[in-house]
């Protein structure tokens, strides 16, 4: 074959590749070029430069911390394009070299990816390293080595740490992908036809999991497990994950689903559950739940489920400084503590709050709490006005 023909063919091949990559042979001063840099915690940061405003030599570009320079002269391959400061190649040549290298090694990479255990481990390590870079701080460190991961695989004998299932590392193929890449000609390739086969195979694929999620991908904190087990564990610690697994295993899920569905068909809709609470109502509900903790013991002391609101207010006011949940929820600051240090003032203060909170009946833990009016004619004493309201606690029967 003539030398000139091969040269022409090679050049036309490069030109086609360049067009496919959307890179130009020639850049003008008004053109823009984008530089992508990986930053920890935020992914790739993009910076845009105008070609005409770039320095015309490498030294000035380094001094100004600009990744490109542009002198307007053609490179050895004939491209009039900006040069990378670090590599000292023009952007078009760099892109062609990278694409050619990827294309050359594609078949080797596919074979390693699909059939080599070492290749699979390297792929998992690369994915783990990329995930670790996405987060800031030393909590997501990465110090795994191929030698360590091989030893870890051998110590687990190729079985999942959580489920003790045999891990798979060979990827599978659909019929379309199989014939498109001629993978059906390679021996020992897993060719799956139905969707259920693909899902079952995919769930047993090997993956790397952090035992304690906060520590990152470090030696002593990673194990091999199936992809499905990794999805289930997510970011739980081992103790919490074990508790969940025990809870799920103790349930008869299939019969339980049938019962729930049958019950759903017969039940009547209670629209009050689905009405959204206002912010004020939500705060009052939370305060009511805190007061409820003191309401039940007080009713046991009184041996009745109906008593004066004022008496319960006095019970809450006694040593309220020691009741941290009340101080925090009712936002009682130091100045208010001094004012309420006198028991009578504190009683009146809590009486007004309890009256406001239980103005509408509240339901807490199968109990209904409401304010009912008492017969003021039967009450004697100076505090008739304060003692006119009663608190009534009623047990709700769910059956």
Overview of this structure, please?
With about 400 residues, this protein is of the alpha+beta class. It folds into three domains: about 5-105, no CATH class; about 105-235, no CATH class; about 280-395, no CATH class. Helices cover about 45% and strands about 15% of the residues. The protein contains 16 helices and 14 strands. The chain has helices at about 5-20, 60-65, 90-105, 105-115, 115-135, 145-155, 175-180, 195-205, 225-235, 240-250, 255-265, 280-300, 310-315, 325-330, 335-340, 345-355, and strands spanning about 30-40, 45-50, 70, 85, 140, 170-175, 190, 205-210, 215, 220-225, 305-310, 360-365, 365-375, 390-395. The strands form six sheets. Strands 11-14-13-12 form a four-stranded antiparallel sheet. Strand 1 (about 30-40) and strand 2 (about 45-50) form a beta hairpin. Helix 4 (about 105-115) crosses helix 5 (about 115-135) and helix 13 crosses helix 16. The longest helix has 24 residues, at about 280-300. It is elongated. The termini are far apart. The model is unreliable at about 1-10, about 175 and about 375-385 (pLDDT under 50).
Number of strands: 14
What average pLDDT do the residues reach?
A: 76
Total number of distinct structural domains: 3
| Rg, Cα atoms, Å | 36 Å
Distance between the termini: 93 Å
Binned, the helix content reads 40-55%
Number of H/I helices: 16
Spans of at least 5 consecutive residues with low confidence: 1-11, 173-177, 377-386
Beta-strand content = 5-15%
Q: What coarse outline follows from CA principal-axis ratios?
A: elongated
Strand order of the largest sheet: 11-14-13-12
Succession of helices and strands: HEEHEEHHHEHEHEHEEEHHHHEHHHHEEE
Largest sheet: 4 strands, antiparallel
Classification by helices and strands: alpha+beta
């Amino acid at each position: 074959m003539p030398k000139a023909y091969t040269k022409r063919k090679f050049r036309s091949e490069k030109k086609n590749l360049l067009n496919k990559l959307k890179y130009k042979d020639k850049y003008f001063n008004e053109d823009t070029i984008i530089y992508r840099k990986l930053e920890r915690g935020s992914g790739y940061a993009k910076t845009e430069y105008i070609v005409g405003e770039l320095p015309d030599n490498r030294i000035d570009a380094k001094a100004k911390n600009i990744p490109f320079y542009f002198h307007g002269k053609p490179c050895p391959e004939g491209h009039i394009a900006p040069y990378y400061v670090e590599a000292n190649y023009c952007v078009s040549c760099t892109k062609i070299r990278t694409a050619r290298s990827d294309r050359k090694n594609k078949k080797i990479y596919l074979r390693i990816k699909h059939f080599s255990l070492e290749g699979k481990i390297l792929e998992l390590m690369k994915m783990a390293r990329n995930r670790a870079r996405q987060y800031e701080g030393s909590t997501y460190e990465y110090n795994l080595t191929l030698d360590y991961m091989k030893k870890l695989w051998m110590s687990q004998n190729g079985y999942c740490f959580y489920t003790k299932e045999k891990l798979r590392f060979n990827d599978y193929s659909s019929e379309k992908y199989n014939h498109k890449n001629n993978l059906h000609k390679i021996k020992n390739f897993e060719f799956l036809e139905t969707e259920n086969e693909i899902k079952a195979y995919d769930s047993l694929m090997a993956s790397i999991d952090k035992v304690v999620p906060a520590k990152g991908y470090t030696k002593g904190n990673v194990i091999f497990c199936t992809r499905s087990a990794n999805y289930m564990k997510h970011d739980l610690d081992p103790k919490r994950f074990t508790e969940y697994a025990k809870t799920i295993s103790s349930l008869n899920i299939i019969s339980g689903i049938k019962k729930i569905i049958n019950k759903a068909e017969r039940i009547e809709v209670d629209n009050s559950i689905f009405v959204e609470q206002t912010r004020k109502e939500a705060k009052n509900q939370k305060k009511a739940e805190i007061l409820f903790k003191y309401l039940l013991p007080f009713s046991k002391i009184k041996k009745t489920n109906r008593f004066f609101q004022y008496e319960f207010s006095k019970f809450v006011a006694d040593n309220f400084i020691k009741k941290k949940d009340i101080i925090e929820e009712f936002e009682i600051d130091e100045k208010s503590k001094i004012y309420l240090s006198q028991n009578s003032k504190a009683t009146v203060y809590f009486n007004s709050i309890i009256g406001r909170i239980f103005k509408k009946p509240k339901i807490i833990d199968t109990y209904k709490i409401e304010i009912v009016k008492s017969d003021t004619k039967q009450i004697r004493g100076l505090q008739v006005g304060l003692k006119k309201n009663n608190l009534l606690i009623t047990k709700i029967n769910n059956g």
